[in-house]
Amino acid sequence: MKKKISNGILYFILICLSLIFLFPFFWALVTALKSPAEIFAYPPSFFPQELHFANFAEAWTAQPFTKYLINSLIVTFLAVVGMTFSSALTAYGFARFEFPGKNLLFMILLSTMMIPWEVLVIPLYMQYNFFGWLDTLKPLIIPSFFGGAFYIFLMKQFLRTIPKDFEESAIIDGANYWQIFCKIFLPLLKPQMVLSAVMYMIIVWNDYLGPLVYISNSEKFTLPIGLSLYKGAHTTNFSAIMAITVIMTVPTVVAFFIGQKHILGSNISSGIKG
After folding, report:
1. For the ABC transmembrane type-1 domain, which residue ranges apply (predicted)?
2. 272: how many CB neighbours lie within 10 A of its CB?
3. Hey, what domains does the chain have and what are their CATH numbers?
4. What is the pTM of this model?
5. Does the pLDDT at position 72 exceed 90?
């Protein structure tokens, strides 16, 4: 009986927390469907008197959001693929090989997480200007192919738990280290790679400062920059902002639910036979 009561209390708390976290999404959707008069009405209403689905079409066509969407998809896909694979490869090197200065290099790598982006923005801008990358999508994509400290750390810690028997058996069978990485460790790393991909996808998809600093050509704008165009000096189109915000939220939510089963449903022990 006590267990049922404790479970009931736990579920009640989880439901309340879920409602709190879901409320901003609900309010964004409701606001996107309201008329301008209802948006500024006081007291605010939780449900619009009339659903204005045309707000979505008007908001999308008011700016070239199709172009912005394509740019965002290109940047997000390439950046996520580059970050995930390069981080896995680097983590494999740190976790499974011994070489002089390994611990020092790994410490330096982790220390880069303490450097705020604001400190690096001017040197990076000068570097990308020297390379001729400004006003292109390259500054948003190419750096991801050199890995990320947090994701390397995440995968390295996992790779350290895998027994040496995997490599020794593969080497006896004639496999080289590249084959071992691709055919043995990549499948085992799938949960960590999916987790890293989802986390980095959310960061890149919602990145505002990067495109703002490196891109001035409107043809290269991404969705967050396009969304900011609705905020003027004197007026702000809140229904359009909320409509685009709801649309932008959908890919991240879909990516989370797709990746969730891979993150939670995999177990390394399934690959080890007793």
Report:
1. 69-259
2. 12
3. 1-52 (no CATH), 60-271 (1.10.3720.10)
4. 0.83
5. yes
